[in-house]
Amino acid sequence: MGSFSGAAGTGDVCGAWQTYECCLKDAFSSCGSSLQQQISIMMDTTKKQFNAQLPGLASCAAATCSSGGSSAPTAATEVETILMATIQMADPLAFDLAKYMAAVKKATGVSHDPIAVLKAFEIAIKYVVPDGTELAALKAAVAKVNSITESQVTVATSGVRRLGAGRRLGMNVDVTITVPDATKAAAVKTSAATATGLESELGGTVSVAQAPVATAKVETKVRSAPSVTSQLATKIQSAGTDIGGTVTAEVQAAPPAASSNSASSKFSFILATVVILFRAAM
Questions:
Q1: CA proximity to 40, closest of 22, 57, 53, 66
Q2: What is the pLDDT, as a whole number, of residue 42?
Q3: 163 pairs with which residues across the strands?
Q4: Which residues contact 25 (CB under 8 A, 6 or more apart)?
Q5: pLDDT attached to residue 20
Q6: Which partner for 73 in 49, 63, 204, 218 could form a disulfide, CB atoms 3.0-4.6 Å apart?
Q7: How far out from the chain centre does Cα 233 lie?
Q8: What string of H, E and C letters represents the secondary structure of 13-40?
């Protein structure tokens, strides 16, 4: 019960369930095949019944337990770490998610294939625009020139004012454009590199103070021994050599305590019900 609750608190549905499944099966491994079959049927039924409360529970793979002649499940001894990797690519079209996952596995030395999801591409540019330019107007102009929506654009002044080519004051503005895929990222990286379109829209001199830089934002899940967790970010950053980019990574914050308590409560409720069902089966 303690092992089950501890694994449940991490939010790992399948890992927690497999921990409990092996605990139960191993405890009664000497009671004969008939009882073992009853336990298996009861566990399968319970997984389906509680899938609504814990989505994904019904699809969890069956645990490989020590009572079956093999080692206990790795899910019970490993932990899952979620990291956000930022990968800077000279050419967004060169980014390959499968190649990235292979590079992460190699760099971290884990036995399981990492799971990576591309969240977005970001293109960052710095412009010098006419002093006094309204940020709302700049945002609309950037969206129009790059054929995107205003919701995909963020703008912020850097607090620096300078004399432009026409000896007029201009202000530095940081622009970030978020797009969903590499194809659009490549197109925006090209269109954002020139200021002609913005000059036409804003009616003043605009220059590119810092050329566009494209980065892929990739959520990365890695299963490893707990002792390796603190090293994962550094190891993933070394994967840049294999994918032709510069990688930075950081571990995502753990869920709020309230969420963990809620998950633990659900698991505790299910555990209590499983115990009742098991006793009834006896």
A1: 22
A2: 76
A3: 169
A4: 36, 39, 40, 63, 65, 67, 68
A5: 76
A6: 63
A7: 13
A8: HHHHHHHHHHHHHHHCHHHCHHHHHHHH
SS3 127: strand
d(CA 92, CA 94): 5
| Chain position carrying tokens 């969890």 | 60
Look-up of token digits 């026409």: 166
d(CA 122, CA 99): 20
Number of Cα atoms under 13 Å in the Cβ half of residue 106: 12
Instruction: Kindly provide the residue ranges of all beta strands, DSSP E only, lying in the chain, ordered along the sequence.
Output: 79-89, 115-130, 153-163, 169-179, 207-224, 246-251
Whose tokens are 């804003």? That residue is 202
- Decide: 105 and 236 in contact? Cβ < 8 Å: no
153: left (phi over 0), alpha (psi -120 to 50) or beta: beta
Residue 227 has pLDDT above 90, yes or no: no
Report whether pLDDT(102) > 80.
Answer: yes
Alpha-carbon gap, residue 75 to 19, rounded angstroms: 7
